[in-house]
Amino acid sequence: YNDPILLSSTDGVGTKLKLAIEANFYNYLGYDLVGMCVNDILVNGGEPIFFLDYISLSSINKMMIIELIKSINLACETAGCSLVGGETAEMPGLYKNGEFDLAGFSVGVVERKNLLNKNNVQENDLIFGIESNGFHSNGFSLIRNVLKENKIDIFQKTPYESSEKYLYQDLLLPTKIYVNLILPLVRNKSIKAMAHITGGGIKDNLERIIPENFQAEINLEDFSSDSKYKWLATVGNINAEEMIKTFNCGIGLILIIDKNKKKKIQKYFFDRNVNIV
Of 133, 89, 82, 78, nearest to 105 (Cα)? Predict the structure, then answer.
């Protein structure tokens, strides 16, 4: 890096933890924790370098800690960064028995010339949405409320089309880590701006990369959300506006590119069997 800028991101998993605790299923939480941080670094054009975790809990559960650290380490390998340390804090009295919280901190680097933001965006640029793994780590307070209000058993068979057998497994699918997929496009200057679709859903996060006096024109003719979002909207009586402001609705990352690079970008993702809209 000839002219580097350091980037940092701090985040947590949120109330998705409550669902994982209820299901006693911790296999993917490390991907959620790491993914929320490194994807936020990525959207600035950055490459994550290292990661630290913080686990606070009522009392040490050895098997649970092993599962968490294992998934955090695997997620760091996926993101191409190093897990360099962290802290585990026992806080009896602050957390109920079996409860815990996760937080993470990541540092990345980008060359100044590769820094991405909305100032790069021009009229007639194109917007592409990159598929998500599912709900990722956002909207789980609403998801849990829908489950509770409708007395839905998370251990039932998945009530919509899914690769997972049981509902809790599908809901806990991990946040997709986009670093290795997207960094090559950053380095060859194929991307002008990016948005990671987290809290605030598609609407709020897309707005962050649209310059003043511009507006995004979204063509929904060729896009349909996965059946899991339709199921949730129907069961929870959630209108379309609320869905798009709360969930990624199947789009985990949004790219803005020069219209002349459309075919190149489409081929790039087609060759890697990644769905884009």
Answer: 82
